[in-house]
Amino acid sequence: MVSSAAAVIVVLLAAVVAEGTKLKTFNKSYKDFDAVRDKDAFIQQGDASIHLKALQVTKDSANPSVIISDLSGRVLLNKRFRLWEDPARQPSFNTSFLINIFPKGNGSEGGGLAFVIVPDRSGPPPRSNGRYLGLTNASTDSNSTTNKLVAVELDTSKQDFDPDDNHIGLNLHSVRSVVAKPLAPHNIALASPAGKFHNVWVDYGGGRIHIYIAEQVGQDAATPRKPQEAIITYDLNLTEHVSHESYFGFAASTGDMTQLNCVLRWNLTVNHLEKDPNWVVIGLGTGIGAAVVAALSAVGLVYYCRKRRAISNPNLVGALRSLPGTPQEFEFKDLKKATNSFDERNKLGQGGYGEVFRGNLAKENLDIAVKRFSRESLQGQDDFLAELTIINRLRHRHLVKLLGWCHKYGKLLLVYEYMPNGSLDKHLFVGPDVEPLGWHVRYKIVSGVASALQYLHNEYEQRVVHRDLKASNIMLDSNFNARLGDFGLARALDNEKTSYAEAEGVLGTMGYIAPECFHMGKATQQSDVYAFGAVVLELVCGRRPGAKIGGFQLLVDWVWYLHRDGRLLEAVDPRLGDDYVGSEAERLLLLGLACSHPAAAQRPKTQAIVQIISGTVAAPAVPPFKPAFVWPAAAGPMGLETDSGSETTSNLGSGWSGQYLSRESYTGYTDSLV
Ligand SMILES: *[C@@H]1O[C@H](CO)[C@@H](O)[C@H](O)[C@H]1NC(C)=O
Ligand SMILES: *[C@@H]1O[C@H](CO)[C@@H](O)[C@H](O)[C@H]1NC(C)=O
Ligand SMILES: *[C@@H]1O[C@H](CO)[C@@H](O)[C@H](O)[C@H]1NC(C)=O
Ligand SMILES: *[C@@H]1O[C@H](CO)[C@@H](O)[C@H](O)[C@H]1NC(C)=O
Ligand SMILES: *[C@@H]1O[C@H](CO)[C@@H](O)[C@H](O)[C@H]1NC(C)=O
Ligand SMILES: *[C@@H]1O[C@H](CO)[C@@H](O)[C@H](O)[C@H]1NC(C)=O
Ligand SMILES: *[C@@H]1O[C@H](CO)[C@@H](O)[C@H](O)[C@H]1NC(C)=O
C-alpha cells in the first residue's frame, strides 16, 4: 500500500514537473561592455573585470606595477538557465564570440581562455591559474562530480597533455581536452604579437557539438563568415556533464607567461525551460516534510485530473479534501445561506474573476467574504487551485486569511475572513462629509503593507511576488490594520486580459505599474516595490497614482516636482490639515519617491523599506529630478543587453499584459523534486 502510494506520488510528481515548465528561447547580443551599466548583467569573479569595452576575463593593465601573471577569472552571464528536465530531451544552445588574446612576456607556464558552462557562481577555484584556465585545479581536475562543467578552450600554452601551444579543445570536467585541434594548419595564431581577433562559434543541439573559428581582421570589422567546416564536431550528451541549471560565460588564466584574455562581443541563444506560472505553486523550498510531499502529490493529482478534464471526477474533490493543512471545506448550502443566496445587496466587489459576497455563518456567527469564480471552465479550476495552494500556505498577520473552500456544480468558491473596513481605496477617496483616515492610521497601514511584502519577498520559504499591489487590494480589518489580499485576481486574469480592462479600466491601475513591466511583461520584487511606492504616495497625498495634478500626468511626478522645489510637505493630503507628523510625512514621501525610481535596481529593497518605516534607518536620499527611464539599461538583473537582443518568446505584446499579473517564485522549484 505504502509503496504503491509512493509510486503514484512519483508518477504524479513527474507529470507535474513535466508540465510545469515551458521551453523558452533566450537570444541576446552583447558588445561595448560597460563596467557601470553591465555591473549586474555579468558576474565577474576572481581576476575578471569589465574594462575597455570588453570582458577582461583576466585583468588588463598597461601599468607594469600591476601583476598580471598567475591570474584566474571568470565572467558569467547573470542568468541561471534551466537546461533540461528529462535527460532524454537534450538542451540546445548556440553562441558566438569575438576574442582577443594578447601575449605579454614569455615563460613556460601559460594560460588560455575558455567558453564555459558551469553549475554555480562559486568562481574559479583556488589555484586555477596557469594550466588550469580558471576551470579546475590540481586537486579537482578530472573529477566529474566536483566539476560539472563543459568548456571550449583556446589554449596558448603547451602542457604535457596538450598537442601544442595554439589549439582549440573541448573540455569535460577537466583541462585535458577530450578532443583538441591545433590551429596552425588553419592559419590561426591565437596569441600572436599583432593581437589578432578571432571569432568562435559553438553550436550544440541534437546531442552534437560543433565548434568553428575564424580570424577577424580588426576589432571593429564585421563578424567574419562562419566557416563551412567545423573544426571540432563531437557527440556529446550534455545532460551527463552539466547541471540542470547552469550559467554560461568565460574563464581564463595566466601563468608566468602572461596574456590578456578578452571577449569583445558575445551572442548567446539558449533554449531553456522556464516555469510556467500556472505551476509555480508547486515550487517548494528545501526541507520538505512528508506531509508536504503528500500535499504535493495531492496537488499533482488535482492537476492530473484537471488535465484529464475529469472535473466531475470525485477524485478531484477527494484530493482537495486530503490536502494536509487545507482549509476547511464548506458546504455549498451553508455558503448560500450565509450570503442570502448570493444576494446582490451582499456583494462586496466584482472583478474579472467573479464576485465577492459578504456573508455570515450562522452556526459560528462568523463574518466571511465569499469569492465566487465566474467561469466554470478549466480556467476557473486553475484560478481556484492556484489561489488555494498559494494562499493556504502563506501565514502572516498582514495577509487576508483564507478560511476554506467549496466546489459544487462546477462552481468554485473561496471563503475568507471578512474585513469589516473594506479596501483602502474606499477610505481614501471619500466625499467631503466623511472623515478622512487619520495620519497614524495611514502610517500603520504603510507599515503593515511593508511587512507583508517583506514576508512574501524574503521570509516565506519560496519567494512570492504579489504583482497586483494597489489600494483596492489592501484590505482593512476592524482595527484598520492592513491586510494584503487578492492573489487570486492576478491568477484569474492571466488568460483573460480584456476582463481586467472591462472591470476596472487600465487607467484604474495607472501609476502602479513599474515602467520596465511594459517592456519585460513580467513582474518582479522590484515592480512590487514600485507599486508599493505608488500606494505610499497615494496614502500620504490622498490622491490616486494616476491623478493628473499640477500639470503632471502622474502623482509621482508632481510629488517629485515639489521635492525639487523644497516644498515636499505640500503634497500631504489637504484633508489632514495640520494633523500629521511632518518628519514622518517627509520620510514616507521620500520613500515613495525612492520606490518610484524608474530604474528597478535603484529602488530600495523590502528589507530596507521596513527599516525606513520603523525609523531605524534614515529616509533615502532622492535626487531632485526624477531620473529618466532608460530601456534596456535600466533593466532588471539580466537585462542590459547592448545590442538588438530580445527574449524571443516572452509575452510582451501590447502594453502590459496578463503576464504581468501572474505570480512567480524562484527557489527550489524542481530541484527538490528530482
Ligand atoms: C543522455 O544521458 C542520460 C544519462 O546517461 C540518458 O538517460 C539519456 O537518455 C541520454 N540522452 C540521449 C539523448 O541520449
Ligand atoms: C543553432 O543553429 C542551428 C543552425 O543554424 C539551428 O538549426 C538551431 O536551431 C540553433 N539553435 C538554437 C538554440 O538557436
Ligand atoms: C551577433 O549577432 C549579430 C546579429 O545577428 C551579428 O550582427 C553579429 O555579427 C554577431 N556577433 C558575433 C560575435 O557573432
Ligand atoms: C623573453 O625571451 C627573450 C629571449 O627569448 C628574453 O630576452 C626576454 O628577456 C624575455 N622576456 C621576459 C619578460 O621574460
Ligand atoms: C581546488 O579547489 C577546491 C575548491 O574547488 C579547494 O577546496 C582546493 O583546496 C583547491 N586545491 C588547491 C590545490 O588549491
Ligand atoms: C571527486 O570529488 C569528491 C568530492 O570532493 C570526492 O568525494 C570523490 O572521491 C572525487 N572523485 C574522484 C574520482 O576523485
Ligand atoms: C536572435 O536575434 C537575432 C537578432 O538580434 C536574430 O537575427 C536571430 O534570428 C535570433 N535568433 C533566434 C534563434 O531567435
Task: Give structural notes.
The protein is an alpha+beta fold and 674 residues long. The chain folds into 4 domains: 2-19 and 277-314, no CATH class; 22-275, Jelly Rolls (Sandwich), CATH 2.60.120.200; 327-417, Phosphorylase Kinase, domain 1 (2-Layer Sandwich), CATH 3.30.200; 425-673, Transferase(Phosphotransferase) domain 1 (Transferase(Phosphotransferase), domain 1), CATH 1.10.510.10. It is built from 14 helices and 25 strands. Strands 1, 3, 4, 7, 12, 13, 14, 16 and 25 form a 9-stranded antiparallel β-sheet that branches. Strands 2, 5, 6, 8, 9, 10, 11 and 15 form an 8-stranded antiparallel β-sheet that branches. It has a 6-stranded mixed β-sheet with strand order 17-21-22-20-19-18, sandwiched between helices. A hairpin with a 2-residue loop joins β12 (197-205) and β13 (208-216). The longest helix has 21 residues, at 439-459. The chain starts with a helix and ends in a 27-residue tail after the last strand. Residues 1-19, 277-315, 488-508 and 633-674 have low confidence and may be disordered. Residues 25, 27, 29, 269, 644-645, 648 line the site of one 2-acetamido-2-deoxy-beta-D-glucopyranose. It is found in: Cell membrane. Residues 342-622 form the Protein kinase domain.
List the helices and strands and how they pair.
Layout: H1 2-19, E1 21-31, E2 42-46, E3 49-51, E4 54-58, E5 72-77, E6 81-82, E7 92-104, E8 112-118, E9 150-155, E10 167-172, E11 179-182, E12 197-205, E13 208-216, E14 232-235, E15 245-253, E16 258-275, H2 290-307, H3 314-322, E17 328-329, H4 332-338, E18 347-351, E19 354-361, E20 366-373, H5 378-393, E21 402-408, E22 411-417, H6 425-428, H7 439-459, E23 474-476, E24 482-484, H8 487-493, H9 497-503, H10 515-520, H11 525-541, H12 555-564, H13 582-595, H14 606-614, E25 646-647
Parallel strand pairs: 17-21
Antiparallel strand pairs: 1-16, 1-25, 2-5, 3-4, 4-16, 5-15, 6-15, 7-12, 7-16, 8-9, 8-15, 9-10, 10-11, 12-13, 13-14, 18-19, 19-20, 20-22, 21-22, 23-24
Helix pairs in contact: 1-2, 2-3, 5-8, 7-11, 7-14, 11-13, 12-13
